Amino acid sequence: MQIALAQLNYHVGNFEANTKKIIQAIAAAESKGAELVVFSELCVCGYPARDFLNYPHFIKQAENAIQKIAAATNEVAVLIGAPVVNPDIEGKDLFNAALWLQHGKVQKVFHKTLLPTYDVFDEYRYFEPNSKFELMELNGKKIAVTICEDIWNVGNENPLYTISPMDELIKLQPDFMVNLSASPFSYVQHEERMKVLKANVERYKIPLVYVNQIGAQTELIFDGGSVVMNEAGEVEKQLPFFEESIVVTDIGHRSLVISHQSSDTIQSIHAALVLGIRDYFSKLGFQKAVLGLSGGIDSAVVLCLAVEALGKENVLSVLLPSEYSSQHSIDDSLALVKNLQSSHEIVSIQPAYQAFLETMKPHFGNLPFNVAEENMQSRSRGLILMAFSNKFGYILLNTTNKSEAAVGYGTLYGDMCGGISVLGDVYKTQVYQLAEYINRNAEIIPHNIITKPPSAELRPNQKDSDSLPEYEVLDKILHAYIEAHKGIDEILAMGFDEALVQKVLRMVNMNEWKRFQAPPVLRVSPKSFGIGRRMPIEGKYLG
Amino acid sequence: MQIALAQLNYHVGNFEANTKKIIQAIAAAESKGAELVVFSELCVCGYPARDFLNYPHFIKQAENAIQKIAAATNEVAVLIGAPVVNPDIEGKDLFNAALWLQHGKVQKVFHKTLLPTYDVFDEYRYFEPNSKFELMELNGKKIAVTICEDIWNVGNENPLYTISPMDELIKLQPDFMVNLSASPFSYVQHEERMKVLKANVERYKIPLVYVNQIGAQTELIFDGGSVVMNEAGEVEKQLPFFEESIVVTDIGHRSLVISHQSSDTIQSIHAALVLGIRDYFSKLGFQKAVLGLSGGIDSAVVLCLAVEALGKENVLSVLLPSEYSSQHSIDDSLALVKNLQSSHEIVSIQPAYQAFLETMKPHFGNLPFNVAEENMQSRSRGLILMAFSNKFGYILLNTTNKSEAAVGYGTLYGDMCGGISVLGDVYKTQVYQLAEYINRNAEIIPHNIITKPPSAELRPNQKDSDSLPEYEVLDKILHAYIEAHKGIDEILAMGFDEALVQKVLRMVNMNEWKRFQAPPVLRVSPKSFGIGRRMPIEGKYLG
What is the set of active-site residues of A? Predict the structure, then answer.
């Protein structure tokens, strides 16, 4: 059977654009000889639609879109993802569904059984789980239609669910499986996904057609990577990552097996962040970005990513020196914008900072210089960057990295400002790797930015290492605590100093209030700050 | 049977404090002759513990606490709430449990069946639902032990679940029901709760002992209001709202029926907000608050609430006049702090604002004054307030109301700064009602603050009504959209102007990015901004 995999980029709630794109893709697949076109999960309304799903009016728009797409179908069968109303009065009001459209109407509806409700996923918030199992019969073939998580409860050491939908469907003797997914990127996701797909074909001994979406929806970045896997667990087709693509393939006839695409971690993080920035701007309807360029590595990497995502003509760097800024910070920044041929402004924060110092003098008296004055500098910078944003319609890019965000090494309403956090899920040690990757062909980021010791430059001769452990050590502790959910006992067993570990975990927990007000973070790891990590602000656990 | 209802205030993750409090309550109940002491849901670890529950080390602490509490029990039976490990490898790793402790050990464990996963609740994120039903047998009585949501799927027009646990338990012929709850306040919650409890006793025809916690955990404020309801649906005991209380009652012997306590909406919102502020500070270990006093009604009401919650000696008001501030703003503010006998400072933002204007002049050129300059004023105020906070260890109280937050009428990093948003779930029209309530015995808030037209005073003669509809109209549209989830067609059917409704809904949806970075909001309505309302930032639905 000739099957088209439609791996596309949707916009949440933009029914008009999504419908148009789907109808065009059906026509394209038809012209390539497809008998069946498979789209990704909830493509009609976009994924994740979150609490828009609580609006009956939103669901009505989805129904209208389904009717419009159905009306555009003929001989070619289509599988699209959409929310549908649960006709039963009991249970949640919706199903997460795959709809088989053909000959101008909806032929059959399949419901999702396993509803991911962990990390960034909230599906049981909206959907009732499926409990009846049927196949799709098309042109003499029997097809098991599954939706994303439905095939993820196979081959796990610690299964999240007590059932596996394919265990039911396989009894009906399908010829192959189809899976409509919306499976977001993380730097371990491709490997995990291939493991899961393989576990399915090995268990059920039939081929699998897997269709994922691409594109970013604020924090979540979808990488595509749709595949056709034969019953031997070999990849017969592999669609590109981070790109729209429609590919037609013949299921059931052995085709050439392609080599398993291994993804380089830093390369894929780089591609994900570029797409994340690009879609944030395009889906909000903005073109231009502004950022503060400090001379440090974080803002340098963000600038390079932004230039790649938006074009050099659309990114303004603002250098914001103070009395504590070193000359090399300015020189290095200027060298970088020159390399990128992008524009910059230099705006001293000194007059504003001095005005605040004078203003606060009667209240601060002779109290020593401390974090209050440091934050006044950082917030003066935030204010100037937001002035550019407000006057000229730029979106401010936040440059905080994950290590800083974790321990609260940053100023709320200062360097924590921004519409989107580009590096908030990238540890400092990974930021260095990104810089090396950006420089893979030529020195874009000046060598000095990469090699100098990190500093916030908020007081004379300040270094990050004055208040934080070396990032090599810090990032290992943070990873153990945040990604691996290790307890303090297990982290100590890794060989770290006890006082240091206690200090770091305490800093992480004490700064939830700060991260609560941080911009959304482009997610590239299995555990990012934001919607996927929900922590009490006033929690007492571990300090 | 003599049953003690222990309605207490817990601290998430503070096992030491919670354990101590529970053991003391057991002793107190014992001294009052109780045979059974009932605590509230997940009291051992605090509710909601959120993603702390993903840490095996956290669960181990809970286990240790359970053992410690069990060891302190004797003849008196105890029911406590705690997370327990699911011994089955399949399914989620935890149960939300009620543990029967007696004679020094755990006698039996009951699991929660219905896991609320909507609004502010995420329970299926952590817990496997119960599937086996047993009673507790104590001193010749059979008790149906249920946890919170377990009794909420009775008497609903649109049931959220396909089962009701009590339908199973009633077959085992219990003498009465016990319910361990963690049910947060909203201004409709008391009425809803009484309706649900009544539906249960009417359906199952046995008495119900209902124990809720009190206290605030950041956004969520728990009001207690634990009750004993007899099989006729009459309230025999009613514990106080927003206060800790341990009451012993005799179940099965008719006692005096008390009059059903009706709660006044504004009075209960006032009490909730005071508790919300108090617990935010006490659980974070802070005493002192600072806020910007503008001369408007929002900051006036926040100041009064803060003084009641923290004491007049712990609240500093800062007046932050600019060239656009009217004299009455200053005079009214001074009259208010005088009435409250609390302290204030006057800090002009003029020097800082002028410095920013000068700094931006080369970049802004001759572009007209607009929101950029307005925001510079608001952000200069935010910066000064945060300078007080950083230098002296105050927490900044945010004064944004729900109407402003909804339409984005506020400056991010400016007047949207703060550790906690006191009025973020209170519409402007309700803020006026709160002011009247605060003035119920004497004029605390000067009359002029209540009667003058609202203004942000960021340009000459500015009024809120320049850019927004009258709050009487705006709040009705917002309520229809946010609380009632009405679509645009239904809102138009209420009789509002189409262009106006479109503008308002568009403003609500376009400002998700701003609210994303707002402080946590004390929740007093059934649908508050924050964790209970999860909206796409880049969503296109309704603009």
Answer: 41, 112, 148
Q: What is the ipTM of this complex?
A: 0.96
Structure tokens, B146:
């249920």
Q: What is the mean pLDDT of residues A315-324?
A: 96
Looking at residue A234, its pLDDT comes to 93
Nearest to B382 by CA among A391, A421, A375: A375
Q: Read off the pLDDT of residues A496-538 as tens digits, 9 standing for 90 and up.
A: 999 999 999 999 999 999 999 999 999 999 999 999 999 999 9
CA pseudo-torsion sign B216, B219, B223, B224: negative
3-state secondary structure of A122: coil
> Which residue type, as a one-letter code, is found at position A506?
R
Instruction: Give the pLDDT band of residue A257 (cuts 50, 70, 90).
Output: confident
Chain centroid, CA B102 distance in Å: 34
Q: Angle B151-B157-B158 (CA atoms, 0-180°, nearest 5)?
A: 85
The residue whose two tokens read 């286990």 is B63
Round the average pLDDT of chain A to a whole number and report it. Answer: 96
Q: Residues 6 or more apart from B1 whose CB is under 8 A from it?
A: B35, B36, B138, B139, B141, B250, B251, B252
Helical spans, DSSP H, in B213-292:
265-284
Q: What is the largest CA-CA distance in chain A?
A: 86
Nearest Cα to Cα of residue B210 among B260, B163, B165, B151: B151
Q: Kindly report the pTM of this predicted structure.
A: 0.97
Report the pLDDT value the prediction gives residue A383, as an integer from 0 to 100.
Answer: 98
Question: Residue A27, SS3?
Answer: helix
Helix (H) or strand (E) holding B328: helix B327-340
For tokens 């970088």, name the residue. A336
Local structure of residue B437 (DSSP, 8 states): H
CA distances from A72 to A33, A68, A402 (A): 17, 7, 46
Query: What is the SS3 string spanning B5-48?
Result: EEECECCCCCHHHHHHHHHHHHHHHHHCCCCEEECCCCCCCCCC
Quickly state the pLDDT bin for B449 (edges 50, 70, 90). Answer: very high
Asked if B6 and B38 count as a contact pair (C-beta separation under 8 A), the reply is yes
**Nearest Cα to Cα of residue B408 among B479, B504, B320:** B504
In this complex, the residue of A51, A356, A516 whose CB is nearest that of residue B535 is A51
**DSSP secondary structure letter of residue A128:** P
B357-399 confidence digits (pLDDT tens): 999 999 999 999 999 999 999 999 999 999 999 999 999 999 9
Structure tokens at B364: 């802004």
CB atoms A536 and B58 under 8 Å = no
* Amino acid found at B451: T
Å between A94 CA and nearest CA of chain B: 11
- Element holding A436 (H helix, E strand): helix A428-438
Please, which residues have CB within 8 angstroms of residue B466's CB and are 6 or more apart in sequence?
A: none
Cα A263 to Cα A261: distance, rounded to the nearest angstrom = 6
Q: Classify burial at A2, counting beta carbons within 10 Å of its beta carbon; exposed 0-12, middle 13-18, buried 19 or more.
A: middle
- Strand ranges, E, within B112-243: 136-138, 141-147, 176-180, 208-211, 214-217, 220-223, 227-229, 235-238
Record: contact A359-B536, CB cut-off 8 A: no
Burial B356-381 (b: 16+ CB within 10 A, else e): bbebbeeebeeeeeeebbbbbbbbbb
Q: Which tokens go with B136?
A: 């507790």
List, in sequence order, every beta strand (DSSP E) within B303-419.
Answer: 315-319, 343-346, 395-398
Contact A517 B513 (CB under 8 A): no
Give the full edge-to-edge strand order of the sheet including B141-147.
Answer: B136-138, B141-147, B176-180, B208-211, B227-229, B235-238
Contacts of A363 in chain B (CB under 8 A): 345, 347, 388, 391
- B39-65 pLDDT per residue, tens: 999 999 999 999 999 999 999 999 999
Residue contact A390–B370, C-beta within 8 A: yes
